[in-house]
Amino acid sequence: MIRIKYFIALIALCICCGITHSQTSADSIEKRIDEILKSMTLEEKIGQTALRGLSSRFRGEIPQGLAKAVREGRIGALLNIMDEDVVKELQRIATEESPSKIPLLYGRDVIHGFKTVVPIPLGLAATWEPELVEQTARSAAIEATTYGVRWTFAPMVDVSRDARWGRIAESLGEDPYLASQLAAAMVRGFQGDDLSDPTSLAACVKHYAGYGAAEGGRDYNTANIPEHILRDIILPPFHAAVDAGVATVMTSFNELNGIPATGNHFLLKEVLKGEWGFDGFIVSDWESVKEMIPHGYAADHKHAAERAATAGMDMEMVSTAYEEHLAELIEEGKVQQEELDDFVRRILRIKMRLGLFDQPGFDSSRRSIIQNPEFLAEAQTAAAKSMVLLKNEKNILPLNKSKTIAVIGPLADAPHEQLGTWVYDSEKETSQTPAPALRKFLGDSKVIFEPTLDYSRSKDKSRFAQAIAAAEKSDLVLFIGGEEAILSGEAHSRADIRLPGAQEELIHALSETGKPLVLVIMAGRPISLYNIIDKIDAIIMAWHPGTMAGPALVDVLYGKVSPGGRLPVTWPKTVGQIPVFYNHTNTGRPFNADRYIPEDKIEVGTWQSALHNTSYYLDLGHLPQFPFGYGLSYSSFKYSNLKLKKSKINMGDTLQVSVQLTNTGKVEAAEVVQLYVQDIVGEVTRPVRELKGYKKVTLQPGQSSRIKFELNAEDLAYHDANGKRISEPGDYNVWIAPNAEEGLQASFTVK
Ligand code: GLC
C-alpha cells in the first residue's frame, strides 16, 4: 500500500514539476524579456521589427550594409541566407557586437520538404492523413535546421475554391475541417515537441487572411468575404494553427473587405491577438506594408507604417516603412511606445522559445541526415498516398508487368517540374522521375519511351508520328502530362485550366490508335479534362509528387499501393464552372437533375420558359467533374446499415452515428469514410453539406468493420450574419459517405 502511495506522490510531483517547469520557463522568459526591453534604445526596438531579405537565389559575400546594420542592432531577422559562413558570421556579429546582443532569426520557405521534396501541400492534403503530413514536416525541419534555418513560412492554409489561382497548389484545399486538421499537423511537425530543440522550426501560418478568395482566382486580387463566411470557412485553419501553438502568423497581400490584411485591425488585433489570444508575432508578407500605398489605403511609407503598426502588425518583411518612420510616429503620438514594446516582446518571446539566446548557432555536421533512406521512403509513401485514382474503366489499373508500355508525355522524365512550386533548396539531380523508374521495374524491353513534347507548354507536333508509332508497338499507352512547376504557385494563376500546349491534341491522336490509354497528371491544380476525358481509360492525379515521384508512381500503377488519395478540392469540368465547391448553399431554385436537358438536346424553337428555371448551366449541368472527397481504389467498398443511436438529442448531447463498411473487392485498400451534416434551417443559409469528420480505414478483401463517429452540438455551431457564433436546436441531415455527392443519409433533431 505504501508503495502505491509513494508512486502516486511521485507522479503528482512530476506533474507539478512539469507544470511549474513550463510555467517557470514562461515566467523566466517574460522576466528576461523585461530586462532586455529596459536596456534597449528606441532604434534597437525598431531594429527587431526588421526582417531583411535577400532574393531566394542569393549566395556568396555578405552585402556590406547588412553586416553594418546587424552590428548596429537594426535587423531582427533575415530570410534567404543559406551560405553557412554568412549565417554564422552575421549571427556572431549580432550576438557579440550588437548593442543588446540579441540573436538573429533566420527564415526560409520550407513548404513541402527541404532537400527531400514531398508532394505539394495540395497533394499532401489528398492523403487525408494528418500523421503522415506531420511526419513530412518534421523531416523537413530536421533537414532545414542543418543550414541554420529556424523559421519556416509555412503552413499555408488559405482555403481556396478556385483552381485558376496558382497558389491553390500550396493550399490544403477547399474545406475548413480538413485544412484545420492538416494545419495543426504541420505546425506540430515543424515545431516538434519542444521549440528550443535545435531541429525545431518556428512555423508561420499564412496568409492571414482571405488570400485564397481573390476575385477571378487572380493572385493578389481583392477579396470580399461576409463575416459569417470568413469565420466559418476562412479563419478555422488559422485558429487551428494558433491552438496548435504556431509561433508566427503572416499577413496576406490582399485587401479584405476594403482593408488590406497587413493593416487590418479587425483581423490582427480583434480576432488573432484578442479573441484567440495569440502570443507569438505577426510578420507581413514581402513588402505588403509598403503595398498599402498602391492598394490606396496609405498615402506614403509613413502612413503605411502607421496603418500597420496601429493594426498590430509586429515585423515588417523587406520593406522599410517601420525602420524609416516608426520613431517619428511615436514622437508624434500616432503610434504608442507600448505598441512597439509589444511587437518587440513578441519577437523576443519566440526567439527565446527557440532557444536562440542560449544556442544561437547550428550544427551543420548533421547534414549527413539529408535525404537519408528513411526520409526518401517517407517521401515515396507520401507521394503514393497523395495520388488520386479518378477513372479506371474496365479496371485497366493496376497494370500487369507483362505488358509493354509506351511512356509518352512532357512530365515522364522532368526532374525539376515534378518537384512543383516553392522548392528553393532541392536539386533536380536527386529527383527520381517515372521513365527510369518504370524501366528499372519492368526492364528496358517493356518500356518504349517517347516524351514527344519537351515541356508541358510545347506546341511542337513534329514528334507526334513517333508517339503514334510507339503506341502502336505497345500494349498500352501511359501518358504522363500536366503542368510545369512554373504554371502554379505565387503569381501563376491561369485563366484556362486545361492541359497546356499540344497535350490534348496528342492525347486525341494517341486515342485514335485504339490502345488502352492511361493518363497520369502532374499539376498544381485540378485540370479541366472536359475535352479529353472520354478518350481516356484511366486517370491518376499525382499533383507535383516531389523527389520520389517515379518510384511512387510505379508502386501505384502496378498495385503495390492501392490508391488511397481523395480530392481535397472539387474538380471542375471546365473553368466556366468556377467557383464550384461542395459546401455551397442551396439557393431558392436548386437544380433538379431529373429535368436536365443538355444544351445540345434542346429542341430548336423551345419556348423560353419550357426548361426548368433552376441553378445550373445549359451546357454543363450543375455537377463538377469530380466532387470533393472523391477517389477510387483498386478495390470496392460497400456502405450499409447507417445507424444513429438516437434521432433526437438535446443541446450539449453527443450524437453517435455509424456505418458498416465492407471491402467487397479482391485487394487490401484504404477508404476515407466521410461524415457530413446539413443544418436545414439557419439564421443564415447553411451549406448543403459540411464535412465534420472522417476516418481513413484500410480493410482486407471481404473484411467488414463498423465505422463510428460522434457529433456534439459544438460541432454544429456556426456564425450568423453579424459574426456571432451560435448553435441552435433544429433539424439536420447527416451522411456517412465516400465523397461529397454520395453516401447513406439519415436525419436527426437537436431539441
Ligand atoms: C512571398 C510569399 C510568401 C513567402 C514570402 C517569403 O511573396 O507570398 O508566401 O513566404 O514571400 O518568401
Short description:
This protein is an alpha/beta fold and 751 residues long. The radius of gyration is 27 Å and the shape is globular.
Features:
751 residues, 26 strands, binds alpha-D-glucopyranose, globular, alpha/beta, single chain
Structure characterization notes:
Helices cover 30% and strands 17% of the residues. The protein has 19 helices and 26 strands. Strand 1, helix 3 and strand 2 form a beta-alpha-beta unit. The relative contact order is 0.10. The structure holds alpha-D-glucopyranose.
Bound molecules: alpha-D-glucopyranose
Task: Indicate the proportion of strand residues.
Answer: 15-25%
End-to-end distance = 49 Å
Percent helix range: 25-40%
Q: Given the C-alpha coordinates, what overall shape results?
A: globular
Number of DSSP-assigned strands: 26
| Biggest β-sheet: strands ordered side by side in the sheet | 11-16-15-14-12-13
